[in-house]
Amino acid sequence: MSVLPAITSALGGDWRERTSAESRLLPQGKLSGPMPWVIAIMIGLTVVATASGLALRNTARAARADVAGGVTVQIVHGAPRERDRQARAALAVLKATPGIAEARLVPQQELDALVEPWLGTSAGDDVNALPVPALIDVRLAGSADPARVKALGQAVRRKAPAARIDAQASWLAPVFEAVHALQWLAGGLIALLAFATVATVLLASRNALGNHRSTIEIVHMLGGTDSQIARIFQRSMAVDAAAGGIGGLLLGVVVTGLLGRQFAALGSGMMAAGGLAWSDWIAICCIPLAGVLLAVLTARLTVLSALRRML
After folding, report:
1. What pLDDT digit, counting tens, does each position of 12-34 carry?
2. Listed residue (137, 9, 141, 116) closest to 71, CA to CA
3. pTM of the model
């Protein structure tokens, strides 16, 4: 009965002595089992999913802000001279319209650069012979709502019948929908990882209770409370969860950094706007703390519930 002195110490005496005795009451095996590694994997995946969701949110916000007041006017006409005349007339109408922050006729060189990947510029190609529409890039002082775009189109077509006007946000609507769906996917993945963490801690706590059932019964006979026993298990779980959380955070940050470099190499302005702000990194660094709290709370509730059914 060598366990009795430790049990007696756990039920009374100085707080430090009681804490030390509680830690010796049941074999802990800290960091030797699979629990820290499992939690590290869960936290690492959660960090990557959270960083991806935040980056997608930042990308969508930047894109919406950039195209919120953007309008494109196309002059679609087969005759180059008439197309240029209507383009100049439309530009004059736009500059005279209140609420227009900027109106710019896109130069021919920029149009040629836009169609170059599809039409080519090799010798013998005559890009200017193609009926490429004239483009006018317009920036409104406010948002390009449908009513405002319709009214602007009516005013422009009085002087340029071949004009077509579109809000730039409408072009990116499918992109915004896809980004929104990916954000929901990231949120669902985070919820599933949290559920998997809870299930893992629950199973580990029940297994530990079964392994130390006889010792727990002795503690109860000597006056030990359920809270004292639960404190032993939750302290061990806190150590394992903290170790796994730190490892998972480092793993997730490394993976996030590598993914960020890959997307930055694309050279897309939209991707560059999806970087993580300092507030996002603070939220990411709080993930291991949330994981530790979740693991400790799950272990405590599991042990207390099992003890009430056990005795």
Report:
1. 444 344 444 444 545 444 445 78
2. 137
3. 0.72
